[in-house]
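TICKET: design request
STATUS: open
ATTACHED STRUCTURE:
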């Protein structure tokens, strides 16, 4: 991670929102945003616009592990 690392603003916004959702225990919102992130990453990979795929793949994998055992309480 360099000082001048290129970041994808759309993905960074989703990453931040997912972190907020998880920290506030907003399970459904976190799951929805993880799905959006996955879809956006696929679109950017196919178009060649994803600059640092390893970083975002690692984040996505971590988020997916965090919500893997979520169950609805209603």
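STATUS: resolved
RESOLUTION: sequence designed for all positions
ATTACHED SEQUENCE:
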């Amino acid at each position: 991670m360099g000082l001048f690392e290129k970041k994808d603003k759309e993905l960074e916004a989703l990453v931040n929102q997912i972190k907020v959702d998880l920290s506030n225990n907003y399970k459904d919102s976190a799951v929805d945003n993880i799905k959006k992130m996955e879809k956006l990453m696929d679109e950017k990979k196919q178009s060649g616009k994803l600059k640092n795929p390893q970083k975002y793949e690692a984040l996505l994998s971590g988020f997916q592990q965090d919500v893997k055992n979520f169950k609805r309480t209603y």
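CLOSING REMARK: Residues 37 and 43 are 10 Å apart (CA to CA). The two ends are 41 Å apart (CA to CA).
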